[in-house]
């Protein structure tokens, strides 16, 4: 029987909770995320991001992805950035606004890791739309009930 491969160290993203392999010398490109998670986000959206100058529909999908990611990975000390993402997300989806007093979800049903994992069977714009809707729904599920 072959020897078991040594396990690779992992890290949990402080934003979305996804557990990914630690990147050697990884520095997060997004302050509210782990290095491995922000790298996965950039790699997953990279091709589409390159198309935004020539394809307005790509720009719309990238903006939606940026807001979904920002809503899951708030930058410490920058509540305005989070609020901006939470305002743009429902507007782009045609959904009800996220109340100002909504509590941050303790768990996420969908993260960028789920988007990346399904790329071989579903196209990226559809995945981003589904992920963004899930992020919105997670935020509004934790909102206090209105009288």
Q: How does the SSE layout of this entry go?
A:
Blueprint: E1 10-12, E2 19-21, H1 35-51, H2 56-72, H3 79-93, H4 112-117, H5 124-141
Antiparallel strand pairs: 1-2
Question: What attributes characterize this protein structure?
Answer:
single chain; 147 residues; mainly alpha; two-stranded antiparallel ribbon; 2 strands; 4% strand; globular; disordered N terminus
Task: Describe the 3D structure.
The N and C termini lie far apart (64 Å). A two-stranded antiparallel ribbon has the order 1-2. The chain has five helices and two strands; from the N terminus they run E-E-H-H-H-H-H. The radius of gyration is 16 Å and the shape is globular. It is mainly alpha-helical and 147 residues long.
Roughly what is the average pLDDT, rounded to an integer? 90
Give the tally of β-strands.
Answer: 2
Level of helix content? 40-55%
Order of helices and strands: EEHHHHH
- Into which percentage range does the β-strand content fall? under 5%
Decide which structural class fits the backbone: mainly alpha
Shape: globular
Radius of gyration: 16 Å
Across the major sheet, the strand order is 1-2
Measure the end-to-end span: 64 Å
Number of continuous helical runs: 5
Give the low-confidence spans: 1-5
- Biggest pleated-sheet summary: 2 strands, antiparallel
